[in-house]
Amino acid sequence: MFQTFDVLSSPQDGPPRLARLRAELKRRKLSGFIIPRADEYQNEYIPASSDRLRWLTGFTGSAGTAIVMAESAALVTDGRYVLQASRQVDQASFEVVHSADVTLEAWIGKHLPKKGILGIDPWLHTANQIALLKKVVEEAGGRLEKLASNPLDAIWQDRPAPPQAKIMLHPLSLAGEDVGHKLARVRDALGLLNASHCVLTQTDAIAWLFNIRGGDVAHAPLPLAFALLPRKGKVQLFIDPQKLDVDVRKALKPTTELFPPAAFADKLAQLAQGSTGILVDPASAAAAIADIISDAGGKLIAAADPVHPMKAPKNSAELAGTRAAHRRDGTALVHFLHWFDQEAPKGKIDEIAAAIALEKFRAASGELRDISFPTIAGAGPNGAIIHYRPTVETNRLLDRDSLFLVDSGGQYQDGTTDVTRTLAVGTPSSEMRRRYTLVLKGMIAISRAVFPAGTSGTHLDALARQFLWREGLDYDHGTGHGVGSYLSVHEGPQRISKAPSAVLEPGMIISNEPGFYKPGAYGIRLENLLVVTPLEVPTDGERAMMGFETLTLAPFDRHCIDARLLDIEERAWLDAYHARVLREIGPTLSVTLRNWLAKACCRL
């Protein structure tokens, strides 16, 4: 199994650890300290050795920040995780704060004492984040201090060892572009900015650039590494040498010089002394990196990482691979849905059993390298916890006449998948069916969208929410995130969200996942992955137009659909989608499963 259902933390651990941290802060004469869920690479998924937030608070979500003062402490997180955080942390020790109600900065402004000193680890915050914190702290009459060492590390006695996963080569047949061509494109971008070098800190960008994959973080094939990329000459790549075998070293030798990660700061400082300009992304690189350059007298160029806009649009080889991965994944999903249809009504299936069954169906292909994130398998009220992960403590039987939300994905060498279906156990209520159908209508609206070149996901987000909004409903997460090509299941810069986002370009893969959540009752989310696709300009049209190709292949649960709420075009889209699922997945199945799928995909 690629996932565990063990309890990774306990609220009871929080109070004694918080007391020890406060003692350390007092010893250092600090009024407070910020603990983000971050590592020095600013990864979304971090190794256990860097998960300071979980160790201190018990919170296991992928987005959150703790702030500790002498007399108060808080965990600030977004709408995806508020319910989860309330269960996982000791609320007598940590106030759980919804970031939409009170931002981290607002909480600091209220609780930092006058002339207080707020400490931060500059390796765990970006330059942009620190600039905002500095402003808030100074307005509160305090001082922000960048620390040379992390006070939490001083008290974390049982800290896990850093990861040592081996590096693998990603074949050119799947990457679609060799390292030399990728480097040339990055160097052209540096030339436009008059930068002599670029600091690369994001591990998915480094993995993509050098056509390598790793396993240093759970569920994403990422190697922990830094890189210093010059406009001319070899790249300095900082990666643990124990992770590299002979073949990987040979492949990297023409383009790189290899160094251990411990050499990064010194090499960067040496480089800064003679450079004409080093590009660092203030939104993604640790602030400590910019400090090293400035302290060495180097010229800092604050600009966006040039790799991400190159990585986001997938080339023809990457798209061919992801289509193959989704067909394979679709077969596994149909096996699971058939199993669920047979077993769930018996009343003996729980969340963990369903998650295990789904992973086994994926693994049966022989191609599964990992799951792309821990399976979200929420029965009844657990489905209303947006990023719920079942554990042996929270595991729940699937009740009759309820909903079961399952959000899952696979990592295959040719592609990354992410799919959500909400399934009926027994007979759903009329309210459940109505709200499921409103979510489905929003999903179809995104799937059918036609938009001019230059459109961003921000412009499309309301298409998914409009039907919920009409009934006074909404959901507290974005509608879509970018997805990598056998990389991170969450990647930028593309997304569909109320927040500002990048322009959607052909080849970008993005999720389409509206939802609705009724706390204490049920959750609904439906998700397909899409790829941005150019469309033919209509007759008499004047602008280049784009739309989406759906990648995910799995039927929706007909028991949840109130067909009366769908208009003719929505029905036509759904019928066409189900016909395609049957056409592409049906031939991979046994006769029994193919007959089941035919019923699941019949016309409304």
UniProtKB/TrEMBL annotation:
One of its GO terms (molecular function) is metalloaminopeptidase activity. Transmembrane segments: none annotated. Pfam families: Creatinase_N, Creatinase_N_2, Peptidase_M24, Peptidase_M24_C. The lineage of its organism: Bacteria, Pseudomonadati, Pseudomonadota, Alphaproteobacteria, Hyphomicrobiales. One of its GO terms (cellular component) is cytoplasm. It comes from Candidatus Raskinella chloraquaticus. Belongs to the peptidase M24B family. It comes from the Bacteria. Residues 17-139 form the Creatinase N-terminal domain. Residues 545-601 form the Peptidase M24 C-terminal domain. Residues 322-533 form the Peptidase M24 domain. Keywords: Aminopeptidase, Hydrolase, Metal-binding, Protease. The keyword Membrane does not apply. This is X-Pro aminopeptidase.
